[in-house]
Design goal:
single chain, about 250 residues, mainly alpha, 12 helices
Length: about 250
């Protein structure tokens, strides 16, 4: 019987027969595949755990994330006034009022003349900190600046023959905030008057209607309270506070 080696088979265009794999080799190869799969899983788990560890020191709430974001914005663009104002508001929301006021003081130093958005932020933060008398004083400043700027805007629009002018939202915001501060100091009539003026500027403000309705209710003026709640429901039909207010008065919508 003739014998052929691998070289002879290749020369004749044939193929060398495969050597049968020994059982121990199959076992070894299987173990290598399993080990490789386990390594991939282990690496994925290690990466996931590392990412988890990195998040342990991260801010845990939306407000804290806002603080970190605006702190970065202030550091990268210190000349942008809005970044300082947003950071101050974020501090105030987390009851860090001293830090909020420090940021506002820095913002005030950035401009020669008082800026209405900075002064409004100061007033809001003072009110949130329950410094109501100081808040009222600053709201007065905001109202004056807002009126002056709106008058200038009106004059400029007339020069350009533009008839439409948006409402003075800054003044309305100042009046709403001052109203709350006045109510807290016991000036109920002043609080209601400010909200009335704010609603004259923005007559579709359902939240302001609900608040003034609450003022009327606490002043035992049921008819005016009910009218204000129902007026709010005309703009926001499912307003939960307005509906609850009517129920407390023993009324339906």
């Amino acid at each position: 019987m003739d014998t052929y080696d691998d070289h002879d088979i290749a020369a004749e265009g044939g193929h060398a027969p495969e050597t049968p794999e020994a059982p121990e080799d199959r076992i070894s190869r299987t173990l290598r595949l399993v080990a490789g799969g386990l390594l991939v899983v282990a690496l994925a788990s290690a990466i996931s755990f590392a990412l988890y560890l990195q998040t342990l020191g991260a801010p845990r709430s939306a407000v804290e994330r806002d603080i970190e974001r605006y702190k970065t914005a202030v550091a990268e663009q210190p000349e942008v006034l809005a970044n300082h104002v947003k950071l101050a508001y974020s501090y105030a929301i987390s009851d860090r009022f001293d830090e909020a006021m420090e940021i506002i003081s820095r913002a005030e130093q950035m401009t020669k003349a008082p800026r209405v958005e900075v002064q409004l932020a100061r007033a809001e933060i003072e009110r949130a900190a329950e410094h109501y008398d100081e808040a009222i004083r600053v709201y007065d400043v905001v109202a004056r600046i807002a009126k002056d700027e709106y008058a200038l805007q009106t004059t400029e629009l007339k020069k350009q023959q533009i008839t439409f002018q948006p409402p003075n939202s800054t003044l309305a915001a100042a009046l709403r905030g001052r109203s709350i501060a006045k109510w807290e100091t016991g000036d109920r009539l002043g609080a209601i008057a400010d909200l009335d003026d704010a609603l004259d500027i923005e007559p579709t403000d359902a939240a302001a209607m609900v608040r003034i309705a609450g003022y009327y209710a606490q002043s035992n003026d049921t008819s005016l309270a009910a009218a204000a709640y129902r007026r709010a429901l005309q703009f926001v039909p499912d307003d939960p506070e307005a509906l609850a207010g009517l129920r407390e008065l023993g009324l339906r919508r």
